[in-house]
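Hey, can you fold this one?
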Amino acid sequence: MKKAVAIICVLLFCSCNYFEKQKIHATDELIQERLDSLDTSTIDKFPIFNKDCEQLDHDLTAEKYCFITSLSSYIGNSLFENKLVLENELDTTFQVAIEISDSGKVTIMSFTIDALLKESIPQIEELVQQSIDELPEVQPALKKIQSGELVPVKTHFIISIRVVAKISNN
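Sure. Predicted structure:
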């Protein structure tokens, strides 16, 4: 009888692990594998800050054009509103590399500005930064995941902005 009780006790102690809940931990390799399988070269919906661009659902080319042109126009108009006084006529284009986070925050990554423009408007970078800071709320780009759900993603863009200044003879 003592042997039977001892065997039952051993079995009970050994089987206690059977009733414990097992925790499943995602490994770094599994997470990286999922990230690698996500196609990051395309997005399914472009960022939006201009309400006119919202109506272009399901036409990525039109969404991209609307976003880039409206952002470029916004920055250009912001520069125009500063009523800069220039000594020479100017017709040039510069580029601004921006990042839009998955929360919609816009950050300037870099500028490509030629020397003539930088000489004519030394504060050009600060003026562009100010206009970016004053942007209305930006909705981030969206990417469809395997479940079909659209999730916000970080995106990078290079925006070209044309600066035209003519000297008026008064």
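The helical segments are 2-19, 28-37, 60-81, 115-120, 124-133. Let me know if you want another pass with a different chain boundary.
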